[in-house]
Amino acid sequence: MTHAYAVVFATPGEPQVLELRDYPLRAAGPGEITVAIEAAGVNFIDVHRRSGALEDGSAFPRTLGVEGAGRVVDCGPQVRGLSPGDRVAFVDSSTGSYASHAVLPATRAIRLPDDVSSETAAALMFKGLTAEYLTHRCVPLAPDDWVVWHAAAGGVGSIATGWLAARGIRVIGLASSEAKRRQVLDAGCYAALDSDAPGALSFIRDVTDGKGAHTVFDSVGRATFELSLASLRQRGHLVLFGNASGDVTGFNLSRLGSMGSLHVTRPSLKHYIGQDAELASSAAQVLASLSKGLIAVPLITRLPLAMAAEAHRIMQDRQTQGSLILVP
Ligand code: NDP
């Protein structure tokens, strides 16, 4: 029998609730494949799940991880187009990718080109799919637009801001350390501002001739929401796609009118790649943009799977630049 192991937690809490456990690997069913995972991506949503901030009501112990990459080792009946030995990435919140193996529907797997390693795919795929829908399908964006991006040196932020800059969009990135701000400028952003210092709003107003940005992408939430609204020009768009600092609550919608007929959306990746065809098309765009140099592989911090708790500590302490991956 295959030796399978996974990171699980028996109760929500601090990173030390994470532990490595053996489990019996089930056989792939109809339409499913088994992947031997070579690298799993760490995402902020994993921190929310582990801490209990995001509750899905599933039974304990729970697994973690929404993406991974590796080699197909088994195909159930009715699987078409994939065979044992193929290398794939997958994005699936039900499998728990902090593990040695994953069993998932073949239609949710993305075949990897030879020149994209499993570690690169794990660093890139979930965040790249997020960057794709946010910057191409969520709000209107045009060359020369002004965009403000919070947490611009993070996993999603570093991919998305480089992609926007490659389209001639002027991005003002916010980040909390000197090293992160250097990275933001290296990605092609117009300016990098200190997210923990005052002055961001006056810079944004000044550089846009007093009008404000066309669009703000905010994944920080409660701590930055008011700055995001105030940074917009009339009829501008706020894309609130995360809540790293806490939920935004108790907002009076009438304020959108008085602040300049603003638009606010709160999108989720699952609603942009829910159909298999959408996933395939978005993943193809991420891989094609990587190959054309329109997006870069994020900086990668690599840790062994057994150090998942340390990975979560680094992420929630705002110390990550680019992507964190776990290697079984
Ligand atoms: P990041 O690598 O961006 O890490 C989060 C960053 O947020 C930190 O590095 C930090 O950057 C910033 N931050 C600001 N305030 C806090 C705080 N109080 N606690 C922790 N971090 C803080 O993570 P990901 O790339 O994995 O995800 C980015 C965001 O996008 C997350 O909020 C995630 O939930 C969201 N997301 C949303 C999706 C959607 O479809 N809606 C899909 C995927 C991700 P700094 O120190 O520079 O401020």
TrEMBL record:
CDD domains named in the record: QOR2 (cd05286)
Domain of life of the organism encoding this protein: Bacteria
SUPFAM superfamilies per UniProt: GroES-like (SSF50129), NAD(P)-binding Rossmann-fold domains (SSF51735)
One family name in Pfam for this protein: ADH_zinc_N
GO cellular component: cytosol
Alphabetical UniProt keywords: NADP, Oxidoreductase
InterPro entries xref list: ADH-like_C, ADH-like_N, ER, GroES-like_sf, NAD(P)-bd_dom_sf, QOR-like
MF terms (GO), sorted A to Z: mRNA 3'-UTR AU-rich region binding; NADPH binding; quinone reductase (NADPH) activity
Statement: the UniProt record of this protein carries the keyword Oxidoreductase: yes
SMART domains: PKS_ER (SM00829)
Domain Enoyl reductase (ER): from-to ranges: 13-326
Protein name from the UniProt record: Enoyl reductase (ER) domain-containing protein
